Amino acid sequence: MNRKILHVDQNCFFASVEMVNNPELRDVPMAVGGDEDKRHGIILAKNRHAAAYGIKTAETIWQARQKCPGLVVVPAHHDQYGYYSEKLFDMYCQYTDRVEPYGMDECWLDLTDIAGAGDPVRVADEIRARVREELHLTCSVGVSFTKIFAKLGSDYKKPDATTLISPENYRAIAWPLPVGDLLFVGRATQRKLEKINIRTIGALAAMSPDYLRDYLGVNGVKLWMSANGTDDSEIANCMYKRMVKSVGNSTTTARDMMNERDVWQTILALSDQVAGRLRKKHLQAQTIQIWARGSDLQGFERQKRLSFRTDRTDEIAKTAMRLFRFNYLWECPVRSLGVRTTQLISSDEERQRSIFDADFRRSGATELETVIDRIRMQHGDLAIRRGVQLECDSKLVENGVLSQSRGGFSSVREPGSRTDLRW
Ligand SMILES: [Mg+2]
């Protein structure tokens, strides 16, 4: 029986996430870059307008600007990419438990043993539509009977396309392609193959496997099987999950943040989402990090190790706010903020009690957050909000900090509270 394997590859992933968060970037040549202050900053991703100028991933920002002086270079927001990567992964897991990530923006899905999965091309098209509608990103999907051909298929046509490489058509589609397009044919291997006049996948497939074993070792035979569609490598089970090392979120607000109250609202919204994700993953954090960047693009990053561990919004937000106050000098307004939690531990583990932990006092607040989680799960993220957040909701939704919900109108409000950093 033929296997049903999908390979989903997000198109220009980093650049696309930046364009979701800041739609103005859609219409200009734009790239995500490493640290531009340093000469060796490189292009990590670019949009199609930038690609039209011949800008390539991994070239220096300096080189890219020579080709396109008007290029807009934005800094990388890795926690944002991680956030989208997890959302995509969760979506794929709705189709099969065999989902294997390959980097941040690619995954294999194996539908072979899924009863009622139906036509894998139809599933591929559905995933593309959902990625477009739910996350405003685009992806290309390869559908095939091997892992390697599925990957080849996702590269074949971009953006937002499905390519089927079947036992019937693989000779016509795959074999004319350059041998370097095949997964695991690196540049060194490609050069070696070209020396013996193998330039296409078809030429590799036609070789004698014994010859390739002598010439390239055991890897040569694996490549020969890949080219012939006979490799049977499996797709890992997604229950084997990537170790989560940090959970964070960041935003660049539509208007600069002018005072501590603006900053507190943003930190609260970010912390709320981070804490919710920690609880969903049954994790608690021991370290809170914050970074901030002013309108002059200067910034800082600081962290604090806690004497306890937490998955609670108030504790994360207050620690983050304290870090901000100690470190931001207000020479200009704040443009972007990020809150990240690290040194994560499973909350199911036996908690090491410490006298500083004050579990006794904390338990009531933790229960409250659990109830909030449950309400949000049923009625959407905006169904229940802290009073201080209501006034800035629309701004944060606009910036993608909060997701649109199915509605809901109630909020947790402290009546009469007028203190500046209202909770
Ligand atoms: Mg990609």
Largest sheet features = 5 strands, mixed
Residue fraction in strands:
15-25%
**Count of spatially separate domains:** 3
Low-confidence stretches: 350-358, 397-423
Averaging pLDDT over every residue, what do you get? 84
H and E string: EHEEHHEHEEHEHEHHHHHEHEEHEHHH
> The CATH topology of the largest domain is what?
Alpha-Beta Plaits
Q: Identify the CATH homologous superfamily of the largest domain.
A: Reverse transcriptase/Diguanylate cyclase domain
Distance between the termini: 59 Å
What does this structure look like?
- With 423 residues, the protein is an alpha+beta fold.
- The chain folds into 3 domains: 1-167, Alpha-Beta Plaits; 175-242, 5' to 3' exonuclease, C-terminal subdomain (DNA polymerase, domain 1, Orthogonal Bundle); 246-398, DNA polymerase, Y-family, little finger domain (Dna Ligase, domain 1), CATH 3.30.1490.
- The chain has helices spanning 13-21, 48-52, 61-67, 78-92, 120-135, 147-156, 170-173, 187-195, 201-206, 209-216, 218-228, 260-280, 313-327, 359-379, 387-390, 393-398, and strands at residues 5-10, 30-33, 43-46, 72-75, 99-101, 106-110, 139-144, 162-165, 246-257, 283-294, 299-310, 334-346.
- Helix 12 (260-280) packs antiparallel against helix 13 (313-327).
- The longest helix is centred in the middle third of the chain and has 21 residues, at 260-280.
- The N and C termini lie far apart (59 Å).
- It binds magnesium ion.
- The site of magnesium ion has 5 residues, from strand 1.
